[in-house]
Amino acid sequence: IIKTGRIGAIFLVPGIDEALRVNGTASLRTDEAFTSLCEVKGCYPKLVVHVVAKQVYLHCAKAVMRSGLWSAAAQVERSVLPTMNQMLREQTGQTAPAESQEAMVARHKTQLYSTT
Fold this sequence. Notes:
alpha+beta; 4 helices; 26% helix
């Protein structure tokens, strides 16, 4: 978004094989005219991605069906992959201790709609 102003997104709904694809332009907005539209339980986002859709279409179910994406047998244990915090630390070279997956989940449960 920052470099080209373009965006491509795919929207998946668990258990549904078809997907919605959107291509267009996007900008990052912090002004109240946009953030106020996204209020939830008295909390406002600090940043909004404003998308202007140029193409919107449905993607057929074949690829999702072939992949077994929604099959319980295709799921892996969370511990198999590094946490988001670990991946970000590795990519950015941060040396602070990584937050555990359990701590992150607990924090998200209490701060999902935080005003801070």
